[in-house]
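Re: weekly structure request thread

Next one in the queue (200 aa):
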Amino acid sequence: MAKPEAAETPVSAPVPVPARRSSKLLLIILLAMVLILIIVVAVFVVLVVSKKNTGGNASASQHAIPLPVVSAPVARIPTVDISKPPIFVQLEPFTVNLRAKEGEDSHYLQTDIALRVNDSKTADALKGWMPEIRNRVNLILSSKSISDVQGDLSHENVQSEILRGLNAMFGIPPPPPEVPQAHGSLGPIQGVLFISFIVQ
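Done, posted below.
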């Protein structure tokens, strides 16, 4: 007996996928993977470099010899109490010939000077020393030339020299160089003030 022939079912042909669409999708995936790979490498490099820097510094600091700490000397700058105004001792005017260098004209200096002290007891005590004070100031002023008293800082330099010279009479060492004239002195004479300063 003959078998009935099976009906042939039609086989549908595969639908071709456009080549452009698949190549675009593949390109996007590749670019995304490359981008992710670059980010991972960058993060890894940053972590390794920062770990080396901190690790290197830590090991260097572990083996470093500690330096001794040297504290700078602290200059004692006297504080000013505004509620207690200072006392001033007025000296008689000075007129001295300035030292003339060769070929220079002679000049003279006329100045009024006041000494600043802390209290009236010191002011009264200085009156007994007045001849020696005037002599010391005279020697300092007459040792100056015209260029010594006409520079930018000439007044401050002369004031500082007189202050140091007068306090040295009472056994007070000069203040350290970092303490300017404006901050006074630790001696009985706190400051030297020029009321007038005329060079002719």
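Residues 19-63 form the longest helix (45 residues). The mean pLDDT is 77.
Next request, please.
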